[in-house]
Amino acid sequence: xxxxxxxxPPPEFRRYAKRVRCTDCNSExxxxxxxxxxxxxxxxxxxPWCPVLNGQVSTLDIHTHALTRKETA
Length: 73
Ligand SMILES: [Zn+2]
What we know:
Shape: globular
Number of helices: 2
Bound molecules: zinc ion
Structural class: alpha+beta
Strand order of the largest sheet: 1-4
Largest sheet: 2 strands, antiparallel
Mean pLDDT: 86
Strand content: 5-15%
Protein name: Recombination endonuclease VII
Low-confidence stretches: none
Order of helices and strands: HEEEEH
């Protein structure tokens, strides 16, 4: 798609991407990608029944959780 050289996400983003999990299902994360504005995104792959998918639950908790929870070894 893009002929831009592949870049590695910054450490803060990698830490976030490692921690981010849906609080309502057993989600997995996909491969991080950088958009045309230079912003990194990590896809969060929800289970098909997850209430987040149909908008019943806000995703805000997911991100807050990823940013604030303590490191687990
Ligand atoms: Zn989910």
